[in-house]
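Predict structure. Chain length: 353.
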Amino acid sequence: MLITHVEVIPVEFDLRIPYRLLSGTDVSRVGAVFCRIETQQGATAWGCTAVDPAFTDQTLAQVTRACQDCADRARDLNPLNTEYALAELSDVAGEVRSALCAFDLAFHDLLGLVTGLPLYRLLGGYRQRIQTSITLRRAPLQETVELARGYARQGFRILKIKSSHDANTDVRRMRAVRDALPGLTLRLDVEGGYTVQQALDVARALEGTLEMIEQPTPPQDVDALQEITRRSVVPILADESVAGPASALDIASRRAADGITIKLVTCGGLHCARQMDAIARAARLSTMIGCVHEPGLLIAAGLGVALSSRNVRYGDLDGAMHLIDDPTVPGYHLEDGWLIARDVPGLGCTVDL
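Prediction complete.
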């Protein structure tokens, strides 16, 4: 198959609710880069990546340049030879794994269009729906409760609450949400902000309240993560500690977590995400498919992975809900906190750009 045209389109989005980085910086806008591929056979495929300051130091301009470099190389590749084409673009993207993600999505979209299969069936077709959590930013106790009530009214039954990085405060916040909404499932995302002892104290205090704790200690301290996992009464997931297949293998071989979180943007796309899920499955670790603040096209791709694998136990695919004016017209459906795929070929989305 011959690629005749590749377009790289950077976009910035306002957030519905700004958030604050651990450094104290307020974030009200995030970026994304879309790529559109046209073939001689008349097919048009879309891919994209996201630039969220919470997860990368790279700028939108840097990611756009890397995507443009990939676009220049992609014109000489057969996108249906996915393994070879992505290996070539991996060398071009280098350290900018998010640029590789955009083209990985586009190539898989094209593969689905050619075969007539939706992504989740193309990758395995284990199920057609999964529940997603909705993320609550770090906020004072009463505001946290009000945010939780608002999302519950929208039909969400799983809440992922960002840690304040003060263990006692987090225990009070989680208990307050539990008391206000006793039927909901609660997850705590610590983003590396605890010591080993704090993580164990919080797990013990919230046993029976929390479904799991995500990334309790700094990403680089795998020894600490391993100790917490060994002693915790609440399941522990590695998030920022897992950036790709190599780090997933390290976590799995050391039993340093009970599960791993996979984000397509940070690992480089569907190809790497499936490798990571296979590593977790072989090691009998659970998988959560997560996201950053990202367009619906990326959510559709993450959903495809989540629906294709029996090993995916958790879904955290709410990133597009926080963007204003996302140009994605999704093929999936959100109903009472469930993401439901439709049998539309490829990623199943159109993009209004």
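Summary: The chain is about 40% helix and 25% strand.
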